[in-house]
Amino acid sequence: MNNIREQIKNKKRIVIKIGSSSLQHAETGDLDYIRLEKLVRELCDISNQGKEVVLVTSGAIAVGKKAVNLKTIEGKTQAEAMAVKQACSAIGQARLMMAYQKLFAEYNQTAAQILLTKDTMINDSSRYNAQNTFDELLNLGAIPIVNENDTIATYEIEFGDNDTLSAVVAALIKADLLILLSDIDGLFTDDPHNNPDASFIDVVESLDDHLLAMGKGSTGSNVGTGGMATKLSAAKVATAAGADMVIANGADFHIIHKIMQGRNHGTLFLSNQKDEFYLIDYLDKLKYQ
Ligand code: GLU
To answer: What DSSP string describes 73-112?
Structure first.
């Protein structure tokens, strides 16, 4: 088993996804700068090891909501609520990037922003452009910071959760590792919030329907949008595209270097590269969801 974990040390192109709940103080909803700083230091250190790293970060809507003192996102109609959400994301995304840029600059690290939508990914030429931009940024030694472009994505065309988005990014740039950091330790045989007998799963060699069904109905935090079900479907995409994936607890971002050192943290999903996996087919199915 340890040999499997040891192989993580050799990963070269890594996507790391952070949920909104990992970036905020639970009590106030304000950004937790100490944790953000730890995260940035961990990412810079991976980059200093000569590896390529991409950050997929949530938090735009939550940060924007806080900036304009909204408790909930509401509107008289669905369209109005969407406009409030999109305005919050426009405010919050800029604030979030400002915090990231400042911290990355302290470590002399160049960061870049990439905002994607389902549409950009479905469209052949914009997907191709995005892929080239990622490649070039990584060539230049920059760390791309990715989020969904919530300001223009509406219900019909949004990914809606950054678990899915990070798996799509991992597949697009042919990453060899995706790390999803959340407020759960990894995958359990049942929902540990409700069942004290649920046991932890260390390694998943292949994601079968039984495992996928286990994610249904499980709870997560109420800050971000992804629960266990979206994490498992992200695992399906990432592993089929040729990346290993780890789901781990982002309560302490030092877990990132521990995972990278091959230590036993989180649940490891082994890559199961499918010859017949085409990102475009997957995106095509998403189009109608
Ligand atoms: N893109 C959303 C944001 O930045 C978050 C989506 C998610 O939580 O997965 O607020």
So the answer is: ---SSHHHHHHHHHHHHHHHHHHHHHHHHHHHHHTT--EE
